């Protein structure tokens, strides 16, 4: 293992990129928190003390005879005693009082007893603290007098053309603009005197494929250090900017493997571009690592999972132990620091730290950190309906072609490629085979982290199975546009190109965005916002189901049953009255009709005041609370094993790994657990959609024990989002 760590460190140390300067600071990990239970299982194996522990023991023995001791030398033998006691209990079967052991541990992490007590004392209401402070969006302002800037590059170019080349870009009158988290962008003609920043952002974003329908919801500029910029002088400073649309959250661009940036003394080094993974150094210190272990040890319990296969909340795919640390000054500090490192708009988007312990042979098989066990939109099966709509359109378009259109006979009526939603055999096999051929050429299934589904399609097409498309799209609806594209490529007629109509925006999508907007509005108003909608107020908007119930009660207070019936119909009016105390009552209603969302917003605004008048967007990309980016801290060195593996990454830091019970440890990128390092990786894409390629696993230690800590973050308030998913929080 030493050779592998040397191999890893040598690769980590290799970079031809200068550090950037800074001006600022398949199973899901369950968020459900049961009452922590002390893990009292004792291993019967014996082991010698590691060299470092033995050295501390020897030092403690020497120090114990000194007549005068400083606090530092008093704590050293306590640390030694704690370490020795732990190993004796764990590996030699000696019976010790767990409370005595834990108390000793808490005194030996480098803090005085008073400091430790202050750090982990209860801290009260989160909403009365700076944790809920929001860095609100700094939107660019449209200017009707501005023209459309000229995009110089017909195709996207890599950010290398701009990094360190501000003077050249300034001399040529160009600025490099990319979308959030992307490494490719376009050059656009622009000089500071031109102004027109909104139009500059819109022109670049459109050229890069962003949907202009969403631009009225807000465009923002960020510099390469993830800081919002709003002036021509700021754009001119580096001539390298990123465009974020609506409420998108910043994603660090990877640039290239080996690229390193420095963020307030914290090193962020790219080790994989897809999925996006960074090695982090200097984010925390040894004293903090020891404190996390000491504080979480007595709360450790078997790790739960969010999976339909885990009927009791546990699964054989996850055998490690975890514990969420209590809300404290210590954990709040990590929430702030994690949010600052990831450039999140609020510390509230970070969860409390979660201690993780892997003993030899324990693991967490490949999984994503985001959740998908709940269908907020109720649209997971709509792709089948969209498929039938396309078949009907394509069939009609073929029938309307002129006789001399030159369409291949295979695409004409009764041909194998003629779209027919009722034909669940020949037509489906033909179009899916075309899709498979294209997918093989582009490595589609690997790129979309769906290799198993690719094999399933191939097998069922070969077996001439019936009704493959319906089964596929019920689970993998995102593949429909790619299937359509394969068909269009072979039909080779512009008249047969299909533009899928945008579905109406769900009331659920509107509801979640409105909460985002309202939280920001309250932050911007500050003391001018009414007391009852302030973060500590009774009517402060949250993602919790309790807030849904409150809104429904407001609606029922403002309308009689007859008035509601006139708006939504008697059946739904009675349903709302009957189910006003049910979980997700408003989401269930808004899923049926956007009118329920409008009723709820009007009822809340009536109480909050005209400063909260909300303009409902015409177009909207769906957002729902979910995990966004994970920062995993490595708290100790492991003798062998304990890697974090990303099976879909094509990068390699160490090779030749074999871990019993977990084959995926030999696949993809394996990050060794180096003490005081961390891995930062995104559960969502730069477009802020969940990313299946973020699949990862915790490999079992072959020797020793691995301690780590998750600092999970969300795209919304983490505690509220967890409760919205039904996990508490």
UniProtKB/TrEMBL annotation:
Superkingdom to which the source organism belongs: Eukaryota
One GO CC term on file: endoplasmic reticulum
Compositionally biased residues, Polar residues: 12-24
Domain Prolyl 4-hydroxylase alpha subunit: 275-714
Keywords: Dioxygenase, Iron, Membrane, Metal-binding, Oxidoreductase, Transmembrane, Transmembrane helix
Cofactor: L-ascorbate
Region spans: Disordered: 1-60
SMART domains on file: P4Hc
Entry keyword annotation includes Transmembrane: yes
Single GO molecular function: iron ion binding
Transmembrane segments: 69-87
Entry protein name: Prolyl 4-hydroxylase alpha subunit domain-containing protein
